[in-house]
Amino acid sequence: MSRMRHAPAPQSTVQQQIQEDWANREYIEVITTNIKKIADFLNSFDTSCRSRLAMLNEKLTSLERQIEYLEARVTKGETLT
Fold first, then answer.
1. Which residues are in coiled coils (predicted)?
2. What is the pLDDT of residues 19-48, one digit of tens each?
3. Residue 10 confidence class, pLDDT cut points 50, 70, 90
4. How far apart are CA 40 and CA 24, in angstroms?
5. Which residue, among 48, 47, 50, 70, has the nearest Cα to 58 in the 3D structure?
6. By C-alpha distance, which of 73, 55, 52, 38 is closest to 81?
């Protein structure tokens, strides 16, 4: 009879392992979701930064051209007015 009393113990151990497995899976899911959110944010940030840097580059290029033009006029002795 003592053997029958011990039979439920493995079942409770299995149930405990299943519960722990589900808890681990839920934890992994939360971590995975947060990693995806971070990756999405970083990709969005990268796109935004690249766009802003491209606009700044265009403005700088335009300013450089204006400076080169003005320097050429000054070198030739032309008046700037």
1. none
2. 999 999 999 999 999 999 999 999 999 999
3. low
4. 24
5. 50
6. 73
> Residue 44 corresponds to which amino acid?
S
* The residue to which tokens 């990756």 are assigned: 39
d(Cα 78, Cα 74) in Å, to the nearest integer?
Answer: 6
What are the boundaries of each domain within the chain? Answer: 7-76
Q: Is 1 a residue whose pLDDT tops 70?
A: no
Torsion of CA 49, 54, 56, 62, to 10 degrees: 180
- How far does Cα 23 stand from its chain's mean position? 27
Please indicate, yes or no, whether the overall pTM of this predicted structure exceeds 0.85.
no
3 state SS for 12-67:
HHHHHHHHHHHHHHHHHHHHHHHHHHHHHHHHHHHHHHHHHHHHHHHHHHHHHHHH
Report the chain's terminal Cα–Cα distance, integer Å: 112
